[in-house]
Write a structure and sequence with these properties.
The protein is mainly alpha-helical. It has 8 helices and 2 strands. This is Flagellar biosynthetic protein FliR.
Length: about 270
C-alpha cells in the first residue's frame, strides 16, 4: 500500500507552487500576457505547463512547509520576482504610450480619447495606436518568447531559497523607471519639434495678419501636418522601438543579476 507522508506532500506541493508563482507573477504584469483579452484560464494553463516543464531542471527546493509563515513568505517573494520581470518590460510600453500622448496633445488630438481595455481607463487615440504598433513589433521580434526564456533563466540567477530579497534590485527598478520620460520624449521629439515650428509660424502669420482666424486655420494645419509626419516616421518607428525592447531585456537581466549578487552577498 502506497503511503504518502505530510512531509512528502508538502515537498511536492512546494516544488510546484513556488515556480508556478514566479511564472504567473510574470504573466500578471508582462505586456501581452496580462492583456484582458487573454482569459485567466489560458494564462493559468500556460503557466502550469511552463512550471511542470522546468521543475526537473531546478535545483533542490528548500524544505519548507508551504502552509507555514516562512513558506508563505517565500511564495510572496517568488510572485514579486515574476511581477518585477514583467513590470520592467511594461515600462517600455508605458514610454510608447507617453510618446503618443505628447504627440496627440501637440497635434490637437488631446480631446480624442476612449476607454482602453488594456489600461482600464481613458486613453488617447494616438497612444492606443502606437501601443498596438509596439505590440505587433513585440510579437515580430518574439518578445513573448524572450520573456518566457527570461523567467525560466531567472531560476539560475535567483534560485528558490529562504534568503530575503535585497533592496538593491528594487532600487534598480526605481532608477530604470525614470527612463520612461526620456524614452517617451525621444520617440516624440521629431514630431514635437516639427509641430512646434508650425505653431510658431502660425503665430507669426496671425500677428502679421490679425484678420485671420487662428483657431479656424491652425487646427486643420497642425492636424494634417501631424498625420503626414507620423506616416513618414512609421518607417523609423520600428527599429527604434525594437532597440528599446532590447534595452528592456538587458535591464531585466541586470535587475535579476543585481538581486542575485546582493542576495548572495548577504
Amino acid at each position: 500500500m502506497l503511503v504518502v507522508t505530510y512531509e512528502q506532500l508538502a515537498a511536492w506541493l512546494g516544488g510546484f507552487i513556488y515556480p508556478l508563482a514566479r511564472v504567473l507573477g510574470m504573466f500578471a504584469s508582462a505586456p501581452l500576457f496580462s492583456h484582458r483579452s487573454v482569459p485567466v484560464r489560458v494564462r493559468l494553463g500556460i503557466g502550469m505547463g511552463i512550471a511542470l516543464a522546468i521543475i526537473p531542471t531546478l535545483p533542490p527546493m528548500p524544505a519548507i512547509d508551504p502552509g507555514s509563515y516562512e513558506g508563505l513568505l517565500v511564495l510572496v517573494w517568488q510572485m514579486a520576482i515574476g511581477i518585477a520581470i514583467g513590470f520592467m518590460m511594461r515600462m517600455v510600453f508605458a514610454a510608447v504610450d507617453m510618446a503618443g500622448a505628447l504627440i496627440g496633445m501637440q497635434m490637437g488630438l488631446s480631446f480624442a480619447i476612449f476607454f482602453s481595455p488594456t489600461t482600464g481607463g481613458q486613453t488617447a487615440v494616438l497612444s492606443e495606436f502606437l501601443g498596438l504598433v509596439a505590440t505587433l513589433l513585440f510579437l515580430a521580434i518574439n518578445g513573448h518568447l524572450i520573456m518566457v526564456d527570461l523567467v525560466v533563466r531567472s531560476f539560475d540567477w535567483l534560485p528558490i531559497t529562504t534568503t530575503p530579497l535585497a533592496a538593491g534590485g528594487w532600487a534598480f527598478i526605481a532608477r530604470y523607471a525614470s527612463l520612461i520620460f526620456a524614452i517617451g520624449l525621444l520617440l516624440a521629439l521629431p514630431l514635437l519639434t516639427a509641430l512646434l515650428i508650425t505653431n510658431v509660424a502660425l503665430g507669426v502669420l496671425t500677428r502679421a495678419a490679425p484678420q485671420l482666424n487662428l483657431f479656424a486655420i491652425g487646427f486643420p494645419v497642425t492636424l494634417t501636418l501631424g498625420f503626414f509626419l507620423l506616416a513618414l516616421s512609421m518607417g523609423h518607428f520600428g527599429p527604434v522601438v525594437a532597440s528599446f525592447f532590447e534595452r528592456g531585456f538587458d535591464a531585466i537581466d541586470a535587475m535579476l543579476r543585481a538581486l542575485a549578487s546582493t542576495s548572495t552577498a548577504r
